[in-house]
Amino acid sequence: xxxxxxxxxxxxxxxxxxxxxxxxxxxxxxxxxxxxxxxxxxxxxxxxxxxxxxxxxxxxxxxxxxxxxxxxxxxxxxxxxxxxxxxxxxxxxxxxxxxxxxxxxxxxxxxxxxxxxxxxxxxxxxxxxxxxxxxxxxxx
Length: 140
What we know:
Layout: H1 2-34, H2 42-60, H3 66-77, H4 87-96, H5 102-122
């Protein structure tokens, strides 16, 4: 029971990670279009960039995602069925009611990576000097 809950928790973390990457990109693009200043927060932007770079590097180096590995190990310990497939394969299969080829999923990672890097030029983060607070009109 504990391992089953752990596996489900790992799935929830994985979903949150995907939502952060995808939703973050959407928020940055809409925020740039609407002139929102909060999208230029360097902490948000750098962690967002790192999140997709980790995924791109895992794909490039042909590494398994640690979250998927841990989930599969927890499912095995809970004696639950696990087909060993990657989380995104299962998620897309669930959403699209079919299976996407691996190259499509990997391509999506790279496209998101390129798009997120492009936002650093489209709407670059604002690095403020130490001790300087944003004025009310800069907070967005």
